[in-house]
Amino acid sequence: MKLVTFLDNQSRQRIGAATADGRIIDLNAADDFFVRDKKNRGSLSDSVVPSDMRLLFEGGDRSLDAARATLQYVTEQRPENGINGEPIFYKREEVRIKAPIIPKKFFHTAGNFREHHHEAEKAGFSHPVLPWIVFFQNVDAIIGPDEPVIFPPHLTGELDYELELAVVLKNAGKHFTAKHAEQYIGGYVIFNDITARDIQREEMKSGVFSFCKGIDSFCPLGPHIVTADEIKEPHNLAMELRVNGEVRQRSHSSKMSVTIPEILAHYSPMGYSAGDVVSTGTVSGVAAFSADPKAWFLKPGDVMECEIEQIGVLRNPVISWEQAYGEKPPALATETQGVVR
Q1: How many structural domains compose the chain?
Q2: Could you tell me if 273 and 179 lie in one domain?
Q3: Which of 31, 141, 147, 287 has its CA 20 to 30 A from that of 242?
Q4: Same-domain check for residues 10 and 58
């Protein structure tokens, strides 16, 4: 399944499934329709598909199986409306797609692709990009497909992109090994780790960084969650990020230094909740380590497209502060905020 969170024609939040022909199936309306016929539900007769994606993943395989059975049923029966007359099938342009999930915790991985470390060394970056760097994302910064990244000129002049594959967990757990990690993987999603490099350089003097990546709108996530059963080998996916149609990052998930099960096991002592998201690190090609960073750093008017094989394309424009808020940005940041202007 390709699971989406969307707002319907009444601006209600719903969980849906994206189809191959570009439509969105409202799984909440479809589930109400399906559950009327208890015999079709069988042992799942008391289970419904919630309207919040995190709740769906908190239900683990039971909830995911319910969603899958509902999807199969309405795909075969093709009912036009739910039990209250609401649409079950929408055209993509009829709904507003949101970020697929807002997790309790969002685990970052840095340095997993050694090519990213090598490009940082070549560019003379202030610190090595070593594996097993873990930190947390500000989940309030999450935005969905086609939602804008807001450029804050009073905070940064070096806005960068980072294409990443991320994992959505379907079970809570802690202190498990890589051998047992597969049972926690619910699906995969694209993550664009937007970073203010000038703030990052200052933060890394203390060995810790988070503000540079956690600013409002700096966490594009989407366009949907592809359930784990549809991606048999997550370490065999082509990855590409484009800015205004120009390829900036191109690599492959096979180039990870450590595998996804190893990453999940390594962080598991901190404890996972179902619905948590874990990123797996970016590939080479970021603006900061290019031959001409000033030309490659993001600016208002740019459009980013993050594509990962078997998942899809996550598209986000960059807009100015004035476009977003209709006013000039606040006073310039001070040195204590990490940027000297």
Answers
A1: 2
A2: yes
A3: 141
A4: yes
Cis omega (within 30 of 0) for bond into 128: no
Instruction: Report helix, strand or coil for 107.
Output: strand
**Are the beta carbons of 5 and 97 closer than 8 angstroms?**
yes
Do 226 and 276 lie in one domain? The reply is: yes
User: If DSSP codes are grouped into helix, strand and coil, which group holds residue 37?
Assistant: coil
Q: Are residues 55 and 164 in the same domain?
A: no
* Rounded-to-integer distance, Cα 135 and Cα 61, Å: 28
DSSP code for 76: H
Please state, in angstroms and rounded to a whole number, the distance separating the CA atoms of residues 198 and 212.
8
On whether both 119 and 202 belong to a single domain, the answer is yes
The three-state secondary structure class of 81 is strand
pLDDT by position in tens, the chain (length 341): 999 999 998 899 999 999 999 999 999 999 888 877 655 545 444 457 898 999 999 999 999 999 999 999 999 988 888 888 889 999 999 999 999 999 999 999 988 876 645 665 665 665 566 666 788 999 999 999 999 999 999 999 999 999 999 999 999 999 999 999 999 999 999 999 999 999 998 988 887 778 999 999 999 999 999 999 999 999 999 999 999 999 999 999 999 999 999 999 999 999 999 999 999 999 999 999 898 999 999 999 999 999 999 999 999 999 999 999 999 999 864 544 444 44
22 with 166, same domain? no
- Among residues 97, 113, 146, the one where a domain terminates is 97
Residue 37 lies in a domain: yes
